[in-house]
Amino acid sequence: MLSVNQHKGGISFKMILVSEIKRAIKLLRNPEKGLDEFNSLSFEGVVSWYVKMLIFLALATGLFTFLFLLVKAVYLDLFLTADIQYWRMINYSMGRTTSLIFFFLFAGTFILFFISILLRSFFRRLRYTKLLGLAFCSLTPVLLFGWIPVSLFPLFIWSLFLFIVGLGRWAGSAHIETGSIKQRN
What we know:
Elements: E1 6-7, E2 10-11, H1 13-29, H2 31-40, H3 43-79, H4 86-122, H5 128-138, H6 140-145, H7 153-170
Antiparallel strand pairs: 1-2
Helix pairs in contact: 1-2, 2-7, 3-4, 3-5, 4-5, 5-7
């Protein structure tokens, strides 16, 4: 269960973020145990974790991109004597950063939703909420390391591996008694 410490009457965003990142690292360190932990959560709990991590990824990507472009401009100005107009460069960097943030949020919600609809046609035995929860959990490598400006292809391969492992683990726990409150699609 997620434990969040109180900080002077409020919940610290840093504490929540650190605990969610620790949960994601635990999943990557030992996929079977991590997937079992996520499988024991409610669908709302998995969605909550995913949204927090998606926002973290989008903001981390935006911040890293902005800082990278700023350092690159300073380097070009100092060592290659390029004439940099810093206000225009900052304007360009902010535009690019904002577009990356919105792209990751868009890809993490709408594109994943359409992919899950396609996956639903192949995995009929698994309830849709479980399939969507598994898709959220399997994207952990992308959510943790997607801000690093390298190819995302290896991260998606890792995510595919987690999805396949999760299918084997979650498919056996998909049986819910008829009439149970947990029977929802």
